[in-house]
Amino acid sequence: MLRFIVRRLLMLIPILFGVSILVFLWIRLLPGSPAEALLGERATPQSIAQIRHQYGLDQPLYIQYWRYLVETVGHLNLGTSIKTFRPVTEELQQRFPATVELAIAAMIFAVSFGVPLGFLAAKKYGSAFDHGSLLASLIGISIPIFFLGLILKYIFSVRLHWLPSIGREDVLAIRSHPTNFYIVDAIINGDPEALWDTIKHLILPAIALGSIPLAIIARITRASVLDVQNEDYVRTARAKGLPPHEVDSRHVLRNAMLPITTIVGLQTGLLLSGAVLTETVFAWPGVGSWLKDAIFDRDYPVLQGGILFLAIVFVFVNLIVDISYAILNPRIRLS
Amino acid sequence: MSVAQLESHEIQLSAPSGGLWADAWSRLRRNPGAITGAFIVLSFVVLAVFAPLIAPYSPKKVNLDALGASCCPGPSSQHWLGVDQLGRDELSRIVYGARYSLVIGLVAVAAGLSIGLVLGAVSGYFGGYTDSVIMRCMDVMLAIPGLLLAIGVVAALGPGLWQIMIAVGITNVPVFARLLRGSVLQQREQDFVLAARSVGVRKRTILFGHILPNSMSPLIVGATLAMATAIIDVAGLGFLGLGPQDPGTPEWGTMLTQVDLYLQSAPFLAIAPGIAIVLLVLGFNLIGDGLREALDPKLRGRTGKFKAAKTAEQALDEVHTEAYSIDSEMVPR
């Protein structure tokens, strides 16, 4: 197992290397330069040249790439945002927790509804409920996230005034955020009001972001339970007179959990890698909306650092899924 | 169910009559979901083709008189879906919008498919060094979140219709390359390939004449489902303001960009294009699901109870292949 993990870790190196080159070259293909984006209409040839020199953009490409690599790997320094003049790592520390918090909330929503829904559908296989849940999950994956977000906003914020529609907390609130995970912060500060405020802000974006994983999880759960139900050991368990709920919990669900865990892991990786649209609709200050803005601002350091960071997160989550899959499923052969 | 029952059931089932395609077609026709999906998609195709005849107004004509006192008058007998903030007829814009979604989706998928097909086939058939290089490149592309990659391509090329198609097409390339590679790898080990090799058929003929035609069915299913995703992605890019730059263009995603401001007074402006997207995407998803069931060779000539067990197994397969495809070292015993 250890050899397998080490090998997989080594395999990540060329991938991340490739990502860094790709990102590096790609953002240099973008029309316009950060100097122009920064200076706007006041740009003069001299000021542009000065900024280009300041950020080393007048050097040959390979030197720029080498410097970027040394800084990133050697000093864990992702540079300074051209727009806000703040270190990219510092902004990441603020924005990534927002994305993680949202992703976890979305996943909790998706799993807590998706698994029971899929399980019930499989139990009532062929019934109206089964067909209904299949259709619902198909509709679920057909709704664009941003449309669902707009509708949720309209119903629960504009019409009913139940929930806030943008941001992570009340704009007027002045609170300290030691970890930037606002829920954790509220608990550390012992502030129930802040906790409730944070949760209220989380609900709508989490539902919007969790809708697609919910539909996928429900489908996989249904299929997986249907599959396990026909296994010999389930029949044996029934034959020896185990009460139905024991059969379900100890034999059916436990075995059906394997593909479900896998899909939950893979989906979490996708959610962590930035929910651009959800974050845009709900003005959520996470990584996705940050990178989207960086593209429009030609903020090279933010793009380079941010996308590389997201790619690292994504491949690591997938690696963890693979490893846990291998641990959970003894039938997998590791060569 | 006992073994004897199973066997008798299997014998009773009509043996597959025609070829794979005839058989698949007959099963597809009996699938209510697929028929509904086909009906939805065809309706949108009709809307798109005959848009000038169907739409009551011009989609781009600004008509401030229609606005009245405030933005925006809702559905009425003259304007079934109301008018937008510039007094343009919403229904006409939806009808014309079908053209954009269908064409952009089709071109994007076709572009991604053709490049991915070549890469996947070459990778799967030749294996070895070629395979490693191509697949590692695909891994790199997959490591960057899809929508960000698409946004990045649009940012590099500038916003617009063509740029969106290219962007969504590029994000599709690794998906198809992997799909076809997996399929080719599977076919390569089949007996008919061994037979062809043993009688001295040339490599190229084996690849194009024997392996590729047999690898088509997962690709067709993949392409249909990719249409659904492509339409969503295109709308998403439009929503972010990266779509056609002429604000008059009735692209559904672009139409949703502005509605945030009018959500309070004119929610129908958000609902109409949104529902249109959902319906069209749902149509493609239904067809894709139906095709997947119809084209599975293991399902030929089978219906009823077998189908249930089969769908379950298939879904499992999907999860497994997804998990395995991340790493080819993991082989189910």
Present the secondary structure layout.
The complex is a heterodimer of chains A (335) and B (333).
Chain A lengths: L1 H28 L4 H6 L5 H10 L6 H15 L12 H36 L4 H15 L2 H15 L22 H7 L3 H38 L2 H8 L4 H29 L3 H6 L5 H11 L2 H29 L3 E3 L1
Helix pairs in contact in A: 1-14, 5-6, 5-9, 5-11, 6-9, 7-9, 8-9, 9-11, 10-11, 11-14, 13-14
Chain B lengths: L2 H10 L7 H10 L2 H18 L1 H4 L35 H37 L1 H16 L2 H12 L3 H28 L2 H8 L4 H12 L1 H24 L12 H6 L10 H28 L9 H22 L3 E3 L1
Helix pairs in contact in B: 2-13, 3-5, 3-13, 5-6, 5-8, 5-11, 5-13, 6-8, 7-8, 8-11, 9-10, 11-13
- Relative helix content of chain A: over 70%
- SS field, number of helical segments of chain B: 14
Largest sheet of chain A: none
Biggest protein-protein interface? A-B, 71 and 57 residues
Main sheet of chain B? none
Taking Cα atoms only, what radius of gyration of chain A do you get, to the nearest Å? 24 Å
Percent strand of chain B: under 5%
Q: Could you list the spans of chain A in which at least 5 consecutive residues all have pLDDT below 50?
A: none
Q: Unreliable runs of chain B, pLDDT <50, ≥5 residues?
A: 301-333
